[in-house]
Amino acid sequence: MMTVPNFYRLEFSIAALESYNAVLDKPLDIRDGNLLLPTGPGLGYDLDTEFMAAHPDPAWNG
């Protein structure tokens, strides 16, 4: 989103934050309703593939 000059807002459910954080290597840093961007390259987050492998989505058929 930081690469789009006129990007204003992306809404998401704070109730799902625990689910989002479960698949990331570190939790999203949200303060005062804003997502703070990490300083690392790319998105700054990696997926926790071990967690994802241990918790497959039974509805996924791909």
Question: Care to describe what's here?
Answer:
The model has no long low-confidence stretch (mean pLDDT 82). It is globular and about 35 Å long. A hairpin with a 2-residue loop joins strand 1 and strand 2. With 62 residues, it is an alpha+beta fold. The chain has 2 helices and 2 strands. The chain has a two-stranded antiparallel sheet.
What brief labels describe this structure?
62 residues, alpha+beta, two-stranded antiparallel ribbon, 19% helix, 6% strand, globular
The count of DSSP E runs of length 2 or more, i.e. the number of strands, is 2
Proportion of residues in extended strands: 5-15%
Our measurement of the CA-to-CA distance between the termini, rounded to an integer number of angstroms, reads: 28 Å
Order of helices and strands: HEEH
Tell me briefly what this model is.
This protein is α+β, with helices and mostly antiparallel strands and 62 residues long. 19% of the residues lie in helices and 6% in strands.
Please describe the topology of this protein:
Layout: H1 17-22, E1 30-31, E2 34-35, H2 49-54
Antiparallel strand pairs: 1-2
